[in-house]
Each structure stands twice: as structure tokens, then as C-alpha cells.
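Example A, followed by Example B.
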Amino acid sequence: MQRMVGLKAPDFKMPGVSGDGERFIDISLNDYKGKWLVMFFYPRDFTFVCPTEIKSMNRFYDEFQKLNAEILGVSTDSEHSHKAWIKADEKDGGIGTLSFPIGADTIHKVSKDYGVYIEEDGAALRGLFIVDPEGILRYAVVHDLNVGRSAQETLRVLQALRAGGLCPADWAPGEDLLTP
């Protein structure tokens, strides 16, 4: 995998849907200028692990907001699929209203640029990226499709990045930073 952390985040523009499923929107990296962006890729709508991650991120949305951070979910499914997923009843596999949008990387450019595209599946790996307010990629983690990510750990990493110093393993807000 090519080094991306510490470099300018790959620019993007893609269609998407608002978190309430009411509006189709255009989403670009520029929309998040001046804020932290937590962008996570997931493989498909109407699946098993993906809704657990999306709902977890949604539960922590207010905590991310307190840190001047926005959340963006992305998959290679269309904005129409995203809308149907948000609007579908939860007993039918729907995810319900979200506090953040979902991007539709239907031409696969964004997932390729971020190194998470699975060519043979036409889907994205579970990649999570944190971009700082100046557009620099500060954190990247990519892993297997079978394992859901922790919104709580993502929040901790964002807090550590914002702490402005050397954070030891398992650092939590309020704990001392390391001094060289």
C-alpha cells in the first residue's frame, strides 16, 4: 500500500444522500475544509456488518461534532440504494435516519484513490481515514470485510490527533502526553 498519511488527502467529488434520506447531494473534500473529516468506506448497503458500523458512528456523532469533526460514510453503491437503505424499515434491513451523509462512489474513483477498492468485487474494503482541517490525511486504517470498526476507538484517535503531542498506546483524554 502506498504511503498516504501525512500527505494531502486525495481530493474527491461524488454524489450522495443526506443522512435523513430526503435529498440527493454532491459531496466533495472541499465541503469539509476547516473541519476534521472522519471518512469511512464500507462494502455494501443492506448487508450484515455495515449497519452495525454506521449505527455506531451515528451514536457517537455528537461527540465527533464537539471536536469540530464531520463524518462521511462511503460505498460503491448508488445514492438511490443509500436512500432506500435509510428509508427502509429496520425490520427489513434499513438503517434509519443518520446525522451524516453517505457518498456514492459508483465510478470507484474515490475508493481507488484511497486504496480500498476491490476490483473483483466492485466494492470497497473497510477503510477509515481522518483528514485534518487543512486537508492533510492524519490517520488511515484498512482491514478485512468481516470485522467491524469501533467508533469509540476512532473517537479516541481523533482526540489523540487533536492533543498536539506524543500520545502513548491506550492514551485517553486527560492523560499526560509523552515528553522527549
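Example B, a separate protein, is given below in the same form.
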Amino acid sequence: MTVPEISYLAVAGAVVASMVVGFVYYHPKVMGSRWMRAIEHDEESVAAGAGSWVYGVVVLASFVTAWVLAGATWLSYEFYGGSFLVNALVTGVVLWLGFTAARVVVHDGFDPRGFRVTPYTLLNGLVTVLAMALVIGLLPPG
């Protein structure tokens, strides 16, 4: 059995990239204000939110996503050949479409708010995965 080669420098960089995307994306002057209205948050509800512990969960989830994307990219590269960067970007989009977008649409279909939040969630997920894929693709293992 062959185990995918993973660049942990790329995984760490992808985690940082995901945090930067989240910080920029959810900034009030970018998409934050629109997202807050869609999800029915206001400054008070955000301030009273989960607390600082949630950032540890976010970093851990970003690590898992980056690690899986790095492994899947290696598998794609070994199977298809070509450019490691192109494999990373295509793999990221395919995994986002099949595992993120499809699941978010199903989940939001049952949300009492309907699909008001869905475009924000999908766009953030796509930009995040593409940023992670870019870092992973630019820092191949070995």
C-alpha cells in the first residue's frame, strides 16, 4: 500500500491561507455585513457568540481539510501526472463541489431561513479551498 506524500509545510501554509481568507471574507467591508444580515446576526449576537475556543476548532478543522486536500492532490498527481499545481486546484474544486457544496445545499434546504445563507457559505468554502489548493500546489512534497 502506498501512502500519499504530504508536505506539512504546505499543510501549515494552507491553514494560514484559510484563516486569512476567513478574516478577509467575513470582514464587515467585504461580505461580513451581508452574511450577518442573512444569518440574522447583529453586533450583539456575534459578540455573545461561541467565544475564543471556537478558533481552536477552526484551526483544527482547517488542518484536517488541508491534510486531506494535500493527500488527495498527491493521489491525483500520481494517477494523472502533469502539473502538481493544476492537480491541486482541480482536486480542490472537485472535492469542494462533491463534499462541501452538495452537503451545504442539502443542509440549507432544511434550514428555516431557506437558502439565504447558502451563497455566502458556498463562496467562502470555494475561495478557502482554492487558496489552500494554491498553497499546496505551489509547495509539493519532496
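On Example B: The radius of gyration is 16 Å.
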